Backbone:
């Protein structure tokens, strides 16, 4: 890997394009090396994972609203598919609808380092453009691997959240790079698209603070849509704000560390394999990633604590991120509010720990049902659970070695009789370093579970076969990545929604 030092530069320096981060990202994306078999196999896993959660969210209001907006923009052939419909739409609108469906349940893949990310958010815009432009399965997989490479590099090197900038600012750049790899565009074109994508997709973290709204699902879909539009504009020869990262009035200088900003971003050398996708991981449970190990820990503790009613208090010693973003250190009263919506509850580790301890399981719908959240014994236990930051868990969260990185914590449970039970778990069972790392069979199992009753068993089999053969498939086979569902049920749900402009 090559370490690229990125700092703010005055306009008078006239920083050359080749020395700008946006150019270096574009150069990695447009390199000619093909991804290796392990990386493309993992990309197939994530295509399956995305379809799982997209289909499971079809009858959720934010997804339906995005779908209605998209289907109001039908495209002349070829266009791109939208989950849950038979309508082909313009690719940027397909990315919008499908990106929202993938993100809605907070149940697809993750990568955590200096910042946060859901790299699978790159797949809907890449798939939409691949369909629209008649690309093959191998083209799509190449684009996915490139997008993951760029997003992981940015997430490792540039922290956004400490300045309250939402993590989709890195997503826009990654998607633009993935599209460049997919379409085999010139580096110059991708460089311009990256800069516009960063410039237009930077927003604050208020979308994940306080009373969390449906925008949490829309934010990455918006970034994907904007990245497609940025690539389209760059292909037409138009330019973008430059240098978007290093400029004295740019991203680093005014939104991140300021005029003295200095970051290190590691990117592959020419000829080096793009393997970052192998460092990312998916979710077994539908909740914020730091809650994955907490759910597994709560299920394990359930065998030791006895009835939850006997619990006097639970303190989870954990990392800075878990404490301040999804724990009691956030200062958000909504994280203890039984009337809070799902978007807030899946970012409340006290709630998640309480329900997992009581139920011994986790379900992407039942665990968030209003009647479940308002259950009196749950509310009582929930409000006895707090988090504290432990410097050692924070250090482990940021360990440079992915094999040693930890996203869990240590639970101290005090029972009514004063006795104390302690246990800890570093990573979720499904993590690559966990007790049951996710493999192809696990991804297929997740797909079958989430689509049960929505997609027929025969259609489940057909979809999984289409995904597994993606590397060798022709352009027309990309339509097979959209499992068939009862579109009449979907349309009937959509018809009940308020109408918008389109």
Residues:
């Amino acid at each position: 890997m090559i370490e690229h030092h990125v700092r703010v530069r005055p306009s008078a320096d006239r920083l050359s394009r080749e020395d700008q981060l946006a150019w270096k990202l574009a150069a990695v994306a447009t390199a000619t090396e093909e991804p290796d078999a392990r990386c493309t196999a993992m990309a197939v896993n994530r295509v399956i994972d995305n379809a799982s959660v997209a289909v499971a969210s079809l009858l959720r209001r934010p997804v339906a609203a995005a779908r209605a907006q998209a289907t109001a923009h039908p495209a002349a052939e070829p266009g791109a598919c939208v989950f849950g419909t038979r309508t082909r739409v313009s690719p940027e609108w397909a990315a919008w609808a499908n990106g929202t469906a993938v993100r809605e349940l907070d149940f697809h893949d993750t990568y955590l380092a200096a910042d946060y990310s859901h790299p699978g958010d790159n797949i809907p815009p890449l798939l939409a453009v691949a369909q629209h432009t008649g690309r093959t399965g191998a083209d799509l997989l190449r684009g996915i691997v490139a997008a993951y490479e760029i997003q992981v590099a940015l997430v490792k090197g540039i922290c956004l959240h400490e300045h309250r900038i939402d993590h989709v600012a890195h997503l826009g750049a990654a998607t633009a790079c993935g599209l460049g790899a997919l379409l085999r565009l010139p580096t110059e074109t991708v460089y311009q698209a990256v800069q516009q994508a960063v410039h237009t997709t930077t927003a604050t973290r208020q979308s994940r603070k306080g009373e969390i709204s449906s925008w949490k699902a829309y934010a990455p879909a918006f970034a994907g849509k904007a990245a497609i539009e940025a690539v389209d504009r760059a292909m037409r020869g138009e330019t973008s704000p430059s240098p978007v990262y290093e400029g004295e009035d740019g991203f680093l200088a005014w939104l991140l560390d300021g005029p003295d900003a200095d970051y290190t971003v590691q990117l592959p050398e020419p000829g080096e394999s793009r393997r970052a996708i192998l460092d990312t991981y998916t979710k077994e449970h539908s909740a914020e990633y730091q809650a994955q190990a907490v759910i597994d820990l709560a299920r394990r503790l359930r065998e030791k604590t006895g009835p939850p009613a006997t619990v006097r208090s639970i303190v989870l010693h954990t990392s800075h991120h878990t404490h301040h973003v999804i724990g009691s250190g956030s200062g958000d009263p909504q994280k203890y509010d039984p009337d809070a919506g799902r978007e807030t509850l899946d970012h409340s580790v006290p709630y998640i720990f309480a329900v997992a301890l009581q139920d011994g399981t986790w379900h992407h719908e039942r665990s968030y049902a209003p009647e479940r959240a308002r259950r009196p014994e749950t509310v009582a236990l929930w409000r006895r659970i707090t988090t504290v930051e432990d410097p050692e868990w924070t250090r482990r969260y940021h360990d440079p070695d992915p094999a040693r990185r930890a996203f869990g914590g240590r639970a101290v449970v005090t029972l009514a009789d004063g006795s104390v039970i302690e246990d800890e778990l570093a990573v979720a069972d499904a993590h690559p370093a966990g007790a049951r790392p996710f493999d192809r069979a696990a991804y297929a199992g997740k797909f079958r579970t989430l689509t049960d009753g929505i997609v027929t068993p025969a259609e489940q089999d057909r979809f999984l076969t289409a995904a597994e053969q993606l590397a060798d498939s022709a352009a027309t086979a990309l339509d097979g990545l959209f499992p068939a569902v009862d579109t009449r049920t979907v349309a009937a749900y959509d018809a009940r929604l308020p109408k918008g402009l389109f």
Summary: The domain at 290-425 is CATH 3.30.1330.120 (60s Ribosomal Protein L30; Chain: A;). The chain has a mean pLDDT of 94.
